[in-house]
Amino acid sequence: MFTQKEFYKKFGLGGLAIMACLFLVVVAMVFMVNPAAACGIGFLPFIGAVKVRDDLHRVRTIKYTHNALTSKDTIYYLNGMILLAQNSAAANVENVYVCTGLIEYAKVEAQAWTGGQKIYWDAGNSLFTNVRAIGHTLAGYASEARANPTTTGFIVLAPEMRAASNASHSVIAAGTSAAENDADATITITLTGVAATDVAVASVRASTAAVYVVKAVLTADTLTVTLSGNGGVGTQVDYIVTRAAI
User: Fold this and answer.
1) What are the residue boundaries of the structural domains of the chain, listed by start?
2) Is there a contact between 56 and 104 (Cβ–Cβ < 8 Å)?
3) Residue 99 in contact with residue 163, Cβ under 8 Å?
4) Which of 6, 134, 185, 190 could make a disulfide contact with 2, Cβ separation 3.0–4.6 Å?
5) Among 79, 56, 147, which residue's Cα sits nearest to residue 107?
6) What pairing do the DSSP bridges indicate for beta strands 232-244 and 169-176?
7) Neighbours of 132 (CB within 10 A)
């Protein structure tokens, strides 16, 4: 016969041993199915060769009802966010869109990307690019390097990168006009992508005569700066064009 103390000692230790064996069996089974998950348990930190990509594929989605037909795996723009439709839906029917996280999408083929590089959405060509330009919208950053040429890239959509700035407008073009012999008090500058609704500011950088800017008017792809008089040889103006933040 066992005393109560001896009973707990013998069978209690045996029970712990059985539980430990069962736990090891569970860990082994998890490892065979999903090594990354097994590493996440915390008891297998030594398996450093496992490339855990599961975290990279975690995304955030939103539900939105578009007023037009939407197509699966197509990029849409909403309130400053680049969205990837997860399904196809008719107009005025709710759809699910990826708004944050890793996606793979078409890129400018003749570009090399580096990990962490800012990536922009070129709506005109329906491609992602690493070139900041008029009409390009900051989308996020490249999750890894891509060689030239490659047709797709891995982009981490990060709307918070655009939200980080509280400015009402952003600069879309800036520079100095080419020197010219101004004889009509007008400097015309071609700026592809600017619109009449943008805002321009200009000042005289150089001129033979003492002149100043009377007005700076934007039309499609063009900035026209009117001076108070003929600037003469070597006339140049500096300019900045901004666009309301979206």
Assistant:
1) 55-163, 169-244
2) no
3) no
4) 6
5) 147
6) antiparallel
7) 12
Q: Residue 230, SS3?
A: coil
Q: Which residues pair with 129 in a beta bridge?
A: 120
- Position 139: which residue type? A
H/E segment holding residue 199? strand 199-206
60-92 burial, b at 16+ Cβ within 10 Å, e below that, comes to: eeeebebeeebeeeebbeeeebbbbbbeebeee
Asked if 232 contacts 181 with a C-beta cutoff of 8 angstroms, the reply is yes
- Model confidence pLDDT, tens digit, residues 49-85: 333 344 445 789 999 999 999 999 999 988 878 999 9
* CB within 8 Å of 142: residues ≥ 6 apart: 113, 114, 115, 116, 117, 119, 130, 153, 154, 155, 156
158 Cβ partners below 8 Å, 6+ apart?
100, 139, 140, 141
Q: Is the pLDDT of residue 166 over 60?
A: no
30, pLDDT greater than 60: no
Alpha helix segments (H runs only) across the chain: 4-33, 35-40, 160-163
- The per-residue pLDDT for 132 is 87
Q: Are 100 and 125 in contact (CB under 8 A)?
A: no
Rounded CA separation 147/220 (Å) = 35
